[in-house]
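Internal ticket - ligand job 91, zinc ion:
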Amino acid sequence: MATIVDDHFMVCPDCLMIIANDDATGLDHFLDEESAAAREREVRHSIAAAKRDGNTLVVGDSEQDEDLSTASCDCCNTTLAGSRHHCVLMG
Ligand SMILES: [Zn+2]
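stdout (structure tokens):
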């Protein structure tokens, strides 16, 4: 049976994009190709770390999103100001 490991796992838009759609193409809009590739590796590495022990990461309740936050992303730990999106880490 699935159990909730963290029901308030707040992630930045970069992480959300890959968690939700496994798509990092949006990174190119803000970064040059080389930086986007480096950022994608960082985010994918962070997601893989969150999913260790067989956990799954799912997009949560958008009503719990924050429009502007400087709290660190629970996934990649960026403190870049921006939106944070609610996800749930399931065990
Ligand atoms: Zn992040």
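Auto-summary: The helical segments are 13-21, 33-50. The chain is about 30% helix and 25% strand.
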